[in-house]
Design brief:
Blueprint lengths: L1 H4 L4 H4 L18 H12 L6 H7 L4 H13 L4
Helix pairs in contact: 3-4, 3-5
Length: 77
């Protein structure tokens, strides 16, 4: 489920969460709890970034958990 939900993220963060642009962070291998907290903060307006807020806006808690699981288990090498 996480990989399917990650498709819109690939444009900036890379197909498997490894960004090729230094402006956007790689997500592969990040701690799941950090990714969950960050996505929820963007979604809920606690953390401000227009692009990320728009991307996270429609995510349910289950979506956030699936995305965080996918990226935390992705390899960064």
């Amino acid at each position: 489920a996480g990989k399917a939900k990650a498709a819109p993220c690939a444009g900036c963060h890379g197909a498997n969460g490894v960004s090729s642009n230094p402006l956007w962070p790689s997500l592969a291998g990040q701690q799941k709890g950090y990714l969950v907290a960050t996505l929820k903060a963007y979604r809920d307006g606690v953390r401000k970034n227009d692009v990320m807020a728009g991307m996270a806006k429609g995510l349910s808690d289950a979506d956030v958990d699936a995305l965080a699981g996918f990226y935390s288990n992705a390899r960064s090498d």
